[in-house]
Amino acid sequence: MLCFLRKDVRKIAIKGKKSLACLTITAVILSCFSVIGHAVDASKEEPKKDLIKWVDFNVPCEAMKKAIALDIASQEQEVKLNYIELLAYLATQNGNNFKNYKDKQLDEIAKKLKSGTTMAELTKDLKYYPYYFESYTAALSGLVGKYEIEVPNEDGSGTHWEERYGIKAFSPIAKNYPYSHSDDFGSSRSYGFKRTHLGNDLFGQVGTPIVAVEGGVVEAMGWNQYGGWRIGIRSLDQKRYYYYAHLRKNFPYQKDLTVGSIVKAGDVIGYLGRSGYSTTENVNNIEVPHLHFGMQLVFDECQKECNSEIWIDVYDIVRLLDNKRSEVVKNPETKDYSRVYDFHDLSEPTLPKTTE
């Protein structure tokens, strides 16, 4: 299927990256998908399944907390629950309308599953369950799993490692740094041209350490006139692209980072600022210091750099992670920050293979 590759000002506003990844005719013919979903030449390759092209993610923080709590509690029981399945089934039942959400709704689903009914049996006649399950898997699968974390000894003598199961992602704002959070996804922006805000703003002090929400590979660093100094990190399962923008003038990034660097959840990646809104590098034209934080879902590589990119509202995900903060410390010589307690993700996928 063809991926339309016209100049896309919307995409430039989001990440400031050129759409050269889909530019060659060969790549377009062999692997790209378009918004219309028609195969280029079925005789040359197996047609791919229809891609998800739009996700309205509006699961409230309270529902995610409850589903995750049920998942964690079930790990020691005979029937293990999956928080993504619970949320996908609930969304199918309520038509993606969570305005009247109550915890008891998830308790009732969990009760059915614990009584012996399988999720496959519950959803066999539900047309839209596969859509919600795939969408929520793309958005949420990096949040919960097994991990090891370094924790201080009670007697203050040092640290030890503990293996846990639970939320393994971190807030983008480091521990002990204040911030306020705006639910401004979808609001209007006018610099350069009228466009939609495809992220959430976290307001704080200049220099506040920004940490990686999830482990992944740094795919983009550098200046973008809309986002200023920004960094883009791809999750190891390739489904999520995290975008952190308006970083600090003169000192935007953790000094060890380069494109291709591998980061862990909770690692310091940069510093909050107000850079951007200028074609000249290293300019502060953002009035109020804040982090622009966004998440793009990628169901196929053609969607990564295309005019049909899928960005979701991460407001409630940030709320969910508010009490999961990475503690950091400043190096007095380099002025850089790093995490205090190390972390190992025991459930993350293997690194993607690279090609020459």
Count of extended strands: 17
The CATH topology of the largest domain is what?
Answer: Glucose Permease (Domain IIA)
Which outline best applies?
globular
CATH architecture of the largest domain: Distorted Sandwich
CATH superfamily of the largest domain: Glucose Permease (Domain IIA)
Bin the strand percentage.
15-25%
- Quaternary assembly: single chain
Order of helices and strands: HHHHHHHEEEEEEEEEEEEEEHEEE
Structural class: alpha+beta
The pLDDT mean sits at: 86
Instruction: Quickly count the helices.
Output: 8
**Segments where pLDDT lies below 50 for 5+ residues?**
1-47, 352-356
CATH class of the largest domain: Mainly Beta
Give the count of structural domains. 2
Could you walk me through the main structural features you see in this protein, from its secondary elements to its overall organization?
- This protein has 356 residues and is α+β, with helices and mostly antiparallel strands.
- The chain has 2 domains: 80 residues, no CATH class; 179 residues, Glucose Permease (Domain IIA).
- The protein contains 8 helices and 17 strands.
- Strands 3, 6, 8, 9, 10, 11, 13 and 14 form an 8-stranded antiparallel sheet that branches. A 3-stranded antiparallel sheet has the order 2-1-17.
- Helix 3 packs across helix 4, helix 3 runs parallel beside helix 5 and helix 4 crosses helix 7.
- The protein is globular, with a radius of gyration of 21 Å.
- The N terminus and C terminus are likely disordered.
